[in-house]
Amino acid sequence: MGNSLRKATTSGSANLTNRERKYVRQTWQAFCQANQDYGVLIFVEFFQRYPSYLPLFPPFGDLPLKDLVCNHRFRAHGYAVGHQIAAVIDTLEDLDVMTELVRKTGVNHAAKPGLKPEHFEHLLHVILETMQTRCPEQFTQDVIAAWIKLFDVVMAVTKPEFSADTAPEATGSKEGVTDDTLRNTGGCSSSTFSQLCTAPSSKRTSSLSEFTAAPSSVSLPTVPLGVRQQSLREPARSESQSTDAESAVDLRSRP
């Protein structure tokens, strides 16, 4: 691993204390135990919040929101991303490995048409809000602050891979992350994440509220592999909160 990457990782993650790493691990474990399909749940929330991002995911991007949870490709993607998040958290003590995992994810996505760093940023925001909504008693301000620090590091490592010089990682370059990058996250909205520490629960989206009402012990429906895909969805809709709220689908388990 390149010296600059190692140096940046050590410097940037030094702000995450042992106690904060413990907060992250414990709350992630609690969230996963309470929600077996945690990766699928996160992506359901993500696309309800940002429905216009669906076409960026060709394997299931032509499906309407209401059909996502019963599509085996969508669920497989959710599981895969959930395991990637878990791998990052499992390697918090091994900073070189953690950063390399994040970097490779950035490299792989930088090569995909249409994907941008802000898509990662929005996903991280949804992850934090989803966990906070599902496990409200555990997400104190200190816990939220620990997750914000981790996500700031994730964005600081990810963003350089989308630049003109580093995006074709066919190049294998590991020099895109510097000490200054991790200290000054180059536009990563840490202020956006920080708003979660003080935002009242009434500010959460209706889609998150719907999920909160569902018992956390209930998993998402079992997937029939022969689910028929519907016709091509309409062009990307507005990302405004009002539109998202109108298009939100109640995916709670029904008796």
Automatic annotation (TrEMBL):
<dbReference type="GO" id="GO:0046872">
    <property type="term" value="F:metal ion binding"/>
</dbReference>
<keyword id="KW-0349">Heme</keyword>
<keyword id="KW-0813">Transport</keyword>
<keyword id="KW-0561">Oxygen transport</keyword>
<dbReference type="GO" id="GO:0019825">
    <property type="term" value="F:oxygen binding"/>
</dbReference>
<comment type="similarity">
    <text>Belongs to the globin family.</text>
</comment>
<dbReference type="GO" id="GO:0005344">
    <property type="term" value="F:oxygen carrier activity"/>
</dbReference>
<dbReference type="InterPro" id="IPR044399">
    <property type="entry name" value="Mb-like_M"/>
</dbReference>
<protein>
    <recommendedName>
        <fullName>Globin domain-containing protein</fullName>
    </recommendedName>
</protein>
<keyword id="KW-0479">Metal-binding</keyword>
<dbReference type="InterPro" id="IPR009050">
    <property type="entry name" value="Globin-like_sf"/>
</dbReference>
<keyword id="KW-0408">Iron</keyword>
<dbReference type="InterPro" id="IPR012292">
    <property type="entry name" value="Globin/Proto"/>
</dbReference>
<feature type="domain" description="Globin">
    <location>
        <begin position="15"/>
        <end position="163"/>
    </location>
</feature>
<feature type="region of interest" description="Disordered">
    <location>
        <begin position="165"/>
        <end position="185"/>
    </location>
</feature>
<feature type="compositionally biased region" description="Polar residues">
    <location>
        <begin position="228"/>
        <end position="245"/>
    </location>
</feature>
<dbReference type="Pfam" id="PF00042">
    <property type="entry name" value="Globin"/>
</dbReference>
<dbReference type="GO" id="GO:0020037">
    <property type="term" value="F:heme binding"/>
</dbReference>
<feature type="region of interest" description="Disordered">
    <location>
        <begin position="205"/>
        <end position="255"/>
    </location>
</feature>
<dbReference type="InterPro" id="IPR000971">
    <property type="entry name" value="Globin"/>
</dbReference>
<feature type="compositionally biased region" description="Polar residues">
    <location>
        <begin position="205"/>
        <end position="220"/>
    </location>
</feature>
